[in-house]
Amino acid sequence: MPSKNVLKKYIEKSYYHIYNRGVEKRKIFVDEQDYRVFLSYLKLYLLPKEESIRELGLNNFEIKNKEKIISEIYVLNNFFEKIHLLSFVLMPNHFHLELWQQSKNDIEFFMRSLITKYSKYFNKKYDRVGPLFQGRYKAVLVQSTEYLLYLSKYIHLNPLELLSKDQLLEEYPWSSYPSYLSINNFCWLNKELIYKNFSENNKYSPQKYKIFVESSHKETEDVRDILGLSL
Length: 231
Known about the structure:
- The chain is of the alpha+beta class.
- The chain has helices at 32-46, 49-55, 63-75, 106-125, 145-157, 177-180, 192-195, 206-214, 219-227; strands at 14-21, 83-91, 94-101, 138-142, 199-200, 203-204.
- It is built from 9 helices and 6 strands, in the order E-H-H-H-E-E-H-E-H-H-H-E-E-H-H.
- The model has no long low-confidence stretch (mean pLDDT 88).
C-alpha cells in the first residue's frame, strides 16, 4: 500500500477513507464472532456512553458484573459527534471505513482506540503476540461529494469477490450496504449525506442507491482506479 496515504496532518470537519489489512496479509477476522466484536467496538465508540449502557441490556446482569461493565464503559474514550461513520466493510484480511471528523485529531484518537482494543481481543483469543495490522492505517482525504459517493460504492462492492454466483451483494452481513437498502439498521451509522444524493420525491430511495452501486459490477476496478486505491 502506498506510503503517500499515511497522512502526517489531518483537517478538521473533513471526510477520510481509512483502510488497513492484516500483517503479512493474514486474516484479521477468522470467524463470525470476530466480525461481531469489531462491530460492537464501533458501536461502543460511536454511540453516547449512556446509550451504549442501555443498548447492552445491563439490567440482565448481576449487580457486581453490572457495575464493572458500566465503569469500563465510562473510562473508555468516546467519539459520539466527533466521528461520523458513513460506510464500512469488513473483509477477512482488511477493512475500509468512510469517516468524518469534527477536530483535526479525532480520527487519529479514534483509530488508535479501535485498533488497540480489537488487537488485544484478537491476540488474547488466538493466543498470539505482536502487531495484528500491517503498520499504520492508511488515510485519504475526500475532497468532493462525487469522490465520497464513489467511495461508498467501492466499499460496498468489496465483498463481490467472496460471493457465489447465486448470492446477492446485500446478503453480505459485514458491511453497511444492507443498512443503506433498509434491510437492517445500525444506529451508529451516519447515512444522511449519502441519503440526500439518492432521494425521490424528497425521500431517500434505497432502490436508487442500489442501482448506483450495482449498475455494473465490472466497474469495481474502474472505481478503484478513480479513487487511486491499491489495497
